[in-house]
Amino acid sequence: MDPMTENTSKSFTAEINFEKLQKIAAEVILPSRFILRPLNAALELITSILAWILGSSLVQKHFHLMLSGLVLFGPVLSFWVSKYSIFANGNHYLYRKFLRSTWGWTCILTGSFIILLSFSTRRSISLTLRHLSRIGLAGLLWWGCRRLLTLLEDAAGACYEPLAPVQDTQSSASAQPLLLLHEDQTKASCLKANMMWRGYEVSQETLILCLSCLLLVEELSIFGRHLAQEKRFHRSPSAPLRVLFLLCVVLLFIWMVLLLCLLAYFPAWPSQQLGGALGYLGWRSLYQGWYRLTPSEGSPGLPGEGLFTSTDSDKHSQ
Questions:
Q1: In which order are the strands placed within the sheet that holds 178-182?
Q2: What are phi and psi of 198, to 5 degrees?
Q3: At CB < 8 A and 24+ separation, what contacts does 113-116 make?
Q4: Closest by alpha carbon to 138, among 71, 220, 218?
Q5: Beta strands 196-198; 158-163: pairing state
Q6: C-alpha span between 181 and 57 (Å, rounded)
Q7: Beta bridge partners of 36
Q8: Cα–Cα distance, 117 to 222 (Å, whole number)
Q9: Three-class SS of residue 159?
Q10: Tens digit of each residue's pLDDT, the chain (318 residues)
Q11: Transmembrane residues, as ranges (predicted)?
């Protein structure tokens, strides 16, 4: 066969295959557009409503009071909850997958939201890293509190090994197990050896849940201002940013549910109340104290600082 004729037939076949691929792609994309449009509209509506709620003065000024009331009076619910509920099981899926890695979930989702929001607003790497440092400082605070509480618990408690009492026919019904004291044992090693630990402690689960809830509300409260600025510039926030915001709100709801379950099904007075108080003090020292200082004083600034125009900042301050 002539080489010229062979090349022409090959190019003609390639053009036909390319046209077929274009038609197939158009047939696939067209139905997906009709599916994605209502989903995108629903996403915009839900995130706008949630942004308005979290950005309202009622939530910003009184959320910590509501959380304090929940920690104080939540254990009262233990008189009404069922001991046979799935949430009364300490090995429930929510406890295993979320409670034991509370800070990890909070750090990943909140950090991703801060990075995407800051960079999409100002396109400044330095400003984005400055806002992201708030999560790092909160992580350092949580790590320091965890280490300090562990040291205090080891110093204020003692490890005991239960021993079977001597059998006595007269007092066998009321006999109590004997306790053998084990010195130089930490709480972790004592519980790992299936022994009994007695002492004062502070609920670290309540501490990190309260701190994470307060942190999420602070960081998510500026999304409404971002939507207002984008609307004024006739721009629409990206779908990934809205999805991240929605995931952070869902995470906030999960933390609230877990906190309520801990208080209702596993009440521990005053350990949980002390943990909630420390979480509140940690939030207070960061967002109501250090972050309100100027950058020259080593502060990363409050959420939204330097991201919005002066008119937005004036409206927010009012």
A1: 178-182, 158-163, 196-198
A2: -130, 130
A3: 113/219, 113/220, 113/241, 113/244, 113/245, 113/248, 114/219, 114/303, 116/238, 116/240, 116/241, 116/244
A4: 218
A5: antiparallel
A6: 54
A7: none
A8: 10
A9: strand
A10: 444 444 444 444 444 465 665 566 555 555 556 566 777 788 889 999 999 999 999 999 999 999 999 999 988 888 888 888 888 887 777 787 888 889 999 999 999 999 999 988 888 888 999 999 999 999 999 999 999 988 888 787 777 777 766 555 454 445 556 566 666 777 777 777 777 777 778 889 999 999 999 999 999 999 999 888 888 877 777 788 999 999 999 999 999 999 999 999 988 888 899 999 999 999 999 999 999 988 888 889 899 888 886 544 444 444
A11: 35-55, 62-82, 102-119, 243-266
CA distance 208 to 275: 8
Rounded to 5°, angle at Cα 15 from 12 and 21 = 145
Distance CA 287, CA 282 (A): 9
Coil/strand/helix, residue 163: strand
Q: What are 65's two structure tokens?
A: 């009071």
The pair of three-digit structure tokens given for residue 258, joined into one six-digit string = 């877990």
Token couple for 238: 């990206």
For residue 243, what are its two tokens? 């999805």
Task: Answer for the pair 204, 188: CB distance below 8 angstroms, yes or no.
Answer: no
What token pair was written down for 248? 């952070």
